[in-house]
């Protein structure tokens, strides 16, 4: 009877074991995974890494940990095991209300045999604070994936790569100890060893606890390697592999592992923690496959990573040197010479200067540092954002009036506005068609840019607004967008005299000995202003005043300021300017009009000191600044260009006595894109 009961009990145990083995609750259907969670699972690590990428740290020409050592999805895009920074959104999913991470395998199908069932049972039983939990596996053809616990802070390698994350000695030692505790647990379990330990497989959760992941199923990983990846990528993924296992991989293309191999891998990770650099950062000039061959080779002096020079304080340097010594023991060539995991833990605890501190106190200090670091990061990024906003606004204000630009930024419709009295300035280059015909298109652009840069710099001191430049035509208005009463006519008169004086001293970049002459036209009257267009919006003026000002320019003469009677009457009221009546002139589209020349400023309104200088000293930033005495010798005074044209004695032996003026290269006030063709035929204005 007793024997029968024992037999029944044993049979029940066998049956129960088989039932547990055949339990398929770990199998996950692909349709049960909700991938929409990927967009909402960003953390501090994701934000800081995104900021780093925006500063140009992750560009097409810069390889990151993700690109070098990361897993790849079915589209070949790099991903991060922790799931914080994703280049594709199909590696994070929600399963039964829990966020999980999918490691996709480029296998079309997986054979679920007894060996795999036993291993899955073992893996599902692995539960430890420093070991990531295996959730299950999807075995559906085309969607073969291993599903792991999701850790919010991402992979250890990405934390080390991110300069925005500040790691002190306590933090680094804490992460290293977490890795050792996870290995110690695995060694005591049925797994016996990790076999795939690297910084890309160490993940950090929201509490900054480091966990080991991707340690199985070995049945699938043993003979699996990505055939689609190039040799360089595969070689870089072997940087953490011990030399004895590298030799077998090179010959048989099989992944093997051992406890001693894990100790070697830990040494490489510890080196990354200390230096915050890639495994072979100092050997980056050596090709990856050559590094692997050197590590695997049996040499008298084994090839190992070098430590860069580190400028730490004395106390930190002592700790670093002690960790370096431990690391070098971990990657010894002889596996038996490497320390055990208990010895490694004991050494780390001895090095740790915070081992006597209370754990809660250490956690509080760490959280305070984390909070301060986050505040600094936000403040830094906010300052960068504000600086970029200022640059954008400055460029926008050069293209449009400030009030109009502000309305457009707020999404408001800019309504047309009427101005009862403004003065408009038009000028163009006399003989521009001939000049352009003798130049290349590049020379034409340089000529206009140099000239308009001088103009732009000149009008800064006046209450005027540059409307636009069209080819060789330059248009300015006073009295809008900010009204200035009756000052617009006198302001524009000063501008015209000043610009004319600037042209007299201007030298063409391609022909310094040549002369440049312009015609200037002024007219005062009502206009309507408004913004036209959505793509490249333009601030334009409309009304008969614009046409009349243009006619004043086209009917003028070289190096003279031609104006209508409306502008002349306003200038007469000021009593500041010398005007000469030109007479009645037939203007196209206008009929007969009485027009005037602006000769300059009346002598009684010019001090004896500045009689030979500028007309615009009243508007300089320091209005009380004295103008130096300019009563110089006849040889130092610039002759009028009109006189140059009339008298040949200005030139002697083909040499021009006129000194050439310095040229400003960029036109920064309302820059305009113009197209020029040396073969085009323009009508001379």
From TrEMBL:
What InterPro entries does the record tag this protein with?
A/G_cyclase, A/G_cyclase_CS, Cyclic_nucleotide_synthase, HNOB_dom_associated, Kinase-like_dom_sf, Nucleotide_cyclase, Prot_kinase_dom, Ser-Thr/Tyr_kinase_cat_dom
Q: Which UniProt keywords apply?
A: cGMP biosynthesis, Coiled coil, Glycoprotein, GTP-binding, Lyase, Membrane, Nucleotide-binding, Receptor, Signal, Transmembrane, Transmembrane helix
Q: Name one GO molecular function term.
A: adenylate cyclase activity
**UniProt keyword Transmembrane helix, yes or no:** yes
Reactions it catalyzes: GTP = 3',5'-cyclic GMP + diphosphate
Q: Which residues does the annotated region (Disordered) include?
A: 620-639
Q: Which residues form a coiled coil?
A: 360-391
Q: Extract the SMART domains matched here.
A: CYCc
Signal peptide span: 1-19
Could you identify this protein by its name? Guanylate cyclase
* Organism lineage string: Eukaryota, Metazoa, Spiralia, Lophotrochozoa, Mollusca
């Amino acid at each position: 009877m007793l024997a029968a009961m024992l037999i029944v009990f044993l049979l029940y145990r066998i049956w129960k074991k088989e039932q547990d083995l055949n339990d398929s609750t770990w199998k996950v259907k692909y349709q049960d995974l909700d991938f929409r969670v990927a967009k909402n699972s960003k953390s501090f690590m994701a934000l800081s890494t995104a900021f780093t990428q925006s500063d140009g740290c992750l560009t097409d020409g810069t390889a990151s940990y993700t690109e070098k050592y990361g897993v790849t999805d079915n589209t070949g895009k790099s991903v991060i095991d922790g799931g914080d920074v994703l280049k594709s959104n199909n590696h994070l999913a929600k399963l039964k209300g829990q966020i999980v991470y999918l490691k996709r395998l480029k296998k079309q199908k997986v054979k679920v045999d007894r060996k795999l069932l036993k291993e899955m049972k073992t893996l599902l039983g692995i539960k430890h604070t420093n070991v990531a939990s295996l959730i299950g596996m999807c075995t559906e053809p085309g969607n073969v994936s291993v599903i792991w616990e999701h850790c919010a802070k991402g992979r250890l390698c990405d934390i080390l790569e991110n300069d925005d994350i500040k790691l002190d000695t306590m933090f680094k030692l804490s992460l290293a100890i977490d890795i050792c505790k996870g290995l110690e647990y695995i060694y005591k379990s049925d797994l016996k060893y990790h076999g795939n330990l690297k910084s890309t497989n160490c993940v950090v959760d929201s509490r900054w606890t480091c966990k080991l992941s991707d340690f199985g199923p070995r049945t699938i990983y043993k003979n699996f390697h990505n055939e689609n990846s190039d040799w360089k990528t595969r070689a870089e993924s072997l940087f953490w592999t011990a030399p004895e296992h590298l030799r077998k991989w090179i010959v048989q293309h099989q992944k093997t592992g051992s406890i001693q191999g894990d100790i070697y891998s830990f040494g490489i990770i510890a080196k990354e923690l200390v230096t915050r650099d890639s495994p072979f950062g100092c050997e980056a000039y050596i090709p990856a496959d050559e590094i692997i061959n050197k590590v695997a080779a049996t040499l008298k002096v084994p090839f190992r990573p070098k430590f860069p020079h580190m400028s730490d304080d004395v106390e930190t340097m002592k700790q670093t040197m002690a960790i370096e010594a431990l690391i070098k023991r971990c990657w010894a060539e002889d596996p038996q010479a490497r320390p055990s995991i208990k010895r490694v833990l004991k050494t780390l605890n001895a090095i740790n200067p915070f081992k006597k501190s209370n754990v809660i106190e250490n956690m509080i200090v760490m959280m305070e540092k984390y909070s301060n670091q986050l505040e600094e990061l936000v403040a830094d990024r906010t300052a960068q954002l504000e600086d970029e906003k200022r640059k954008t606004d400055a460029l926008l204000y050069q293209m449009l009036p400030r009030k109009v630009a502000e309305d457009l930024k707020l999404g408001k419709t800019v309504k047309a506005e009427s101005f009862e009295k403004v003065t408009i300035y038009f000028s163009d280059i006399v003989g521009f068609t001939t000049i352009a015909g003798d130049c290349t298109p590049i020379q034409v652009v340089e000529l206009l840019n140099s000239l308009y840069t001088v103009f732009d710099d000149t009008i800064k001191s006046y209450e005027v607004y540059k409307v636009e430049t069209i080819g060789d035509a330059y248009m300015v208005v006073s009295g809008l967008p900010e009204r200035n009463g009756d000052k617009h006519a006198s302001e524009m008169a000063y501008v015209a005299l000043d610009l004319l004086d600037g042209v007299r001293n201007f030298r063409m970049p391609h022909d310094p000995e040549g002369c440049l002459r312009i015609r200037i036209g002024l007219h005062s009257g009502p206009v309507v202003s408004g913004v036209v267009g959505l793509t490249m919006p333009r601030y334009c003026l409309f009304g008969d005043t614009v046409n009349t000002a243009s006619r004043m320019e086209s009917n003028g003469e070289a190096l003279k300021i031609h104006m209508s009677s409306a502008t002349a009457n306003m200038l007469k009221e000021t009593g500041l300017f010398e005007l000469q009546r030109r007479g009645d002139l037939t203007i196209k589209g206008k009929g007969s009009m009485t027009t005037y020349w602006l000769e300059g400023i009346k002598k009684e309104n010019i001090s004896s000191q500045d009689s030979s200088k500028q007309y615009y000293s009243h508007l300089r930033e320091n209005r009380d600044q004295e103008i130096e005495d300019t009563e110089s010798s006849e040889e130092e005074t610039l002759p009028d260009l009109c006189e140059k044209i009339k008298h040949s004695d200005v030139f002697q032996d083909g040499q021009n006595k006129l000194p050439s003026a310095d040229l400003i290269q960029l036109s920064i006030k309302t820059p305009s894109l113009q197209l020029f063709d040396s073969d085009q035929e323009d009508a001379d204005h």
